[in-house]
Amino acid sequence: MDSTRRAGGTRRDFLYLTAGAMGAVGVSSALWVLPNSMNPAADTLALASTEVDISKIQVGQAITAVWRGAPLFIRHRTPEEIAKERAVDWQSLRDPQKDEDSAVKAEWLIVKGVCTHLGCIPLGTKAGQPRGEYGGWICPCHGSQYDLSGRIRSGPAPKNLLVPPYTFVTDTLIRVG
Amino acid sequence: MASAGKKVKFDNPVVQWINDRLPIYSILHDQYGNFPTPRNFNYFWSFGAIAMAMLGIMIVTGVFLAMSYTPHTTLAFESIEHMMRDVNYGWLMRYTHMNGASFFFIAVYIHISRGLFYGSYRQPRELVWIFGVVIMLLMMVTAFMGYTLPWSQMSGWGVTVITSLFSAVPLIGDGLVTWLWGGFAVDNPTLNRFYALHFLLPFVICAVVFVHVWALHVSGSNNPTGVEPKSEKDVIPFNPYYTTKDSFGTVVFMIIFMAVVFFAPLVLADPAHFRQFDPMQTPPHIVPEWYFLPFYAILRAFTIDLNIPFTHIILLPAKLQGVIAMFSSILLLLFLPWLDTSPVRSAVYRPVYKWCLLLLLLAVCALTYAGSKPPEGMPLWFGIVGTFYYFLHFLVIVPVLGKYEKTLTPPASISESVEAGHE
Q1: Is-contact B36 B236, C-beta < 8 A?
Q2: Spans of all domains in chain A
């Protein structure tokens, strides 16, 4: 039909393809930029690590610190508590985790205080709060119960309380994040 | 488009001048003035107009509230108090907007129930129905984001719980939640983006309402008999008959709405809505607004993980089951036009299906109750039974009953049914 038609297609086909390809590149870069702008901004990321002085926490006590805008539970466990958690048959749990892996120094348990079900803050850190059947934490929203190793033991939560990355700067100072 | 082709002449030369260049007057005349409409509507057919009036009220009050609102975590709660105490008539605009959300949902839920009962979703109105479901989804997202803005305990924790649902998505769940929040917890970036979207989405809703009504005006309205109009005797012009009827229905609805705004503005509000958001302290009992309760109950009706048999490997965690069920409870409505197999459109002539619809209503009431209570004991059972019937209804009863039910014979035409004196 068209006198300019050759075996590899016409000039018009070439123009359609190159224009289409440029358009696709433009649209996909916008699709990358716009949603990505909703990810945490640089200043939010800069607050991602925090230092906590743990020298004042007595044995058997726990405190709530703030890490990334969410609570962080730091518990100074008693020898009985440690013995109890280390004796648990961890392989049969919903989210199997060894106590030795979550508490690097046995007397210090450090977990993010956010229920892995729907993000509520479990009770059990302050003295006098209910701690649930397993002696750790109980979530007021939907009743998930955690033990003193932060492991999910009953209720709807699928995972253990998150153990954040942390290091001991000195014996009484930790850096989280 | 009903009477396209016929050119309307206008007496007013200005109107005629505009109409020759932009035919808005002929469109109004064809689509609302002269539009042939079944003569036998009952008042359930007024709820589309009522819902549209509510959308207008929400947008207008919302724009004025936005002039006194500050979307920042440190100032949002105070700016609401400022609105309530200092801004001229701020309390009135806010109570109208706050309760308006509830009344918008009341109108829309009645509108949807009417469609379910009289089979308005069926061929040839599938797209009208689908656009309607899209409007409902957009309304839910908009209402949820609006709920965040006062930055109260209920706002902050409601958002935390509902956005955390997305962490159930396999593999990308946690990243998805961080992306929604714009951080590692519900914080200022979350509030900012929800405010932007809460402002934007109502206008998107307007656009979808436009195509919803457009598609409706192509097929024409359904009516209580479910029988399509067959002759001029079956229809009357939209104006003045239904402009009057819809206006009257709207006025009655607005009287009830305003009675709540003026005399019981906080009847639907939770006390936790009057304390500022504290990200370190979850209130003892988090409940969504009443219009989300049935879906919240479906979410929480699933409590047992699905394992690969005889192992501890979890195939489908309870949390993910709940999330899937909640979203599918709404999305399955999109398929309703094809699930319904009955030869008869209106439930008036379906003696068994009528009762199933009543059961569906009871199931939704049971779910509403279950959603308002902690998920344990009796309320949990109400939730499980309600969820079971909800899915049984749409996925089994609707397709199967349609094939086997012995239906009554619908009247031959609308005029025959009107003259016989029923409906």
Answers
A1: yes
A2: 1-39, 45-176
